[in-house]
Design brief:
By secondary structure, this protein is α+β, with helices and mostly antiparallel strands. The protein has one domain: Nuclear Transport Factor 2, Chain: A. It contains four helices and six strands. It has a six-stranded mixed β-sheet, covered by helices on one side.
């Protein structure tokens, strides 16, 4: 039986294709890939997370390069995505090991990224949202015990 025109899937809009390309890039990201981030970000891109604010592709690359210096085997697993025109929100798990603290223990930070794309499907705005206290500080040896104590005190 030959499928009718109504049985065929609709082609994906350009924005969804761009987001799929970006998701694949981040999930496969390796230290050598930082040099080719210009294929995914505009030269004037803006990036912000709880620790960094970067303007311009070179600064965004510096942030991601530092990630590989500070952490062992960091990688992203995208767990969800909402695409609305030229912007999207991705939820993700960032998995890594600390080089200095508990190097044998995998850590996971759960967060999300709000991305805005230009007309060519390149990222011009990248804002990461995640709770640094819960997702990171509580996992550090000395700071972690203080953060957990503070959390217990505020929940009483």
């Amino acid at each position: 039986m030959t499928p009718s025109a109504t049985d065929l899937p609709l082609p994906l809009p350009a924005e969804r294709l761009a987001v799929a390309r970006i998701v694949h890039f981040f999930e496969a990201l390796q230290p050598t890939d930082v040099a080719r981030m210009g294929a995914f970000y505009t030269t004037e891109a803006w990036f912000k997370d709880p620790f960094n604010e970067a303007r311009g592709l070179a600064e965004v690359q510096r942030v991601f390069s530092h990630m590989y210096v500070a952490l062992d085997q960091p990688h992203f697993v995208v767990t969800g995505q909402l695409v609305d025109g030229a912007q999207c929100f991705l939820t993700w798990n960032f998995v890594f090991r600390f080089k200095r603290f508990s190097p044998d223990t995998w850590q996971t930070v759960r967060g999300g990224s709000h991305l805005k794309l230009n007309a060519h499907g390149l990222i011009e705005y990248h804002r990461d949202y995640w709770d640094a206290a819960e997702e990171l500080y509580e996992k550090l040896p000395a700071v972690g015990s203080l953060m957990r104590w503070l959390k217990r005190r505020t929940n009483q």
